[in-house]
Batch of 2 targets.
Target 1
Amino acid sequence: FFTHAHPGRALRPFTTRMMIRNTIVAGTRTTIVAPVRKIQAASARSEPVIVIHRGINRLYLYNGTRLVRVFPVATGQPAWPTPLGHFEIVVKQKNPWWYPPTQDSWAAGAQPVPPGPGNPLGTRWMGLSAPGVGIHGTSEPWSIGHSESHGCIRMQIPSAEWLYNRVHVGTPVFIIPA
């Protein structure tokens, strides 16, 4: 007979295994009450988490469960939607180059753009585990609040720089529909 886990408690696995083993060896059919230890809330680490609401073009930064800041963003157009799901930041770059995606017809004939004014990525790139998708600044600030990108999440350049300084490689990113 098993019961569900309880928040704030952790099973002591070695002691529990020994209790089960001893009961089996003894051949008894007694109830075993597995020992647990309390987990203090202070031991829970607060890490940054990003939640992007694609339908309302908002990015929420949390520190653990505490909301830190909300940003307006641009997300993907209907033809190139921002993917839904659970991802993570896999690369961070300051002053990135923009390289046209060779597999996309919209970028046919485009040339790489070095860092500086007019770079489509702005001054910061936070690449996600979704191929070709990232969070970045934009040289088109009018697009913020709309579905204007080719799948990426665009931010105002100062906002992207602020966020870049508060997240790390491995930060979870959840992209949800509304």
Note: The helical segments are 13-26, 157-164.
Target 2
Amino acid sequence: MVYKIFEIFVCNILLFVPCLLTNSLFAQHLNYTNGKDSWNADSLGNHRAVVTFTGKGNIAKVIIAWCRRDINPDQKRIIVQDAKTGKKILNVKPGDINRESGTVFFEPVSGSGTYYIYYMPTIYEGLNTYYPMGIYRKPENTANASWANSISSTSASIVNCVVKEIQSINALNS
């Protein structure tokens, strides 16, 4: 009886350990860091994804794995900013946006490098500065129609950006 229990235990371990090792090889570790008040939260919001474009051409695609508690994230504005110049990218097209992840297409105007994707920009309204009420900004379409139409099924299937980290504006908002 003891031998049979030991045999079952060993077989389960032999099956379970390779699964753990395999999953850890494919898991992406995503850092959540403090942005140390390095951007204007009043216009860009409290959270951003730091992504690196490694592809070629004028269409970047990134899939951001986030965990959002807000309702209808597809009805919130997404702002992409070039880290080299600090300028807002106008050619941005949201793909599938939900509470677990978001797909974003944008034009990498500075080529390979770092871009910031702000996904919860807010406007603060309220009675006074001590009791503000944050309201999520509505989506805006600033993309050139010809650029947006150039996103074909071929370019839409290739992910050419890597999410380096998710940042909050400061420790309070992490």
Note: Residues 14-27 have pLDDT under 50 and may be disordered.
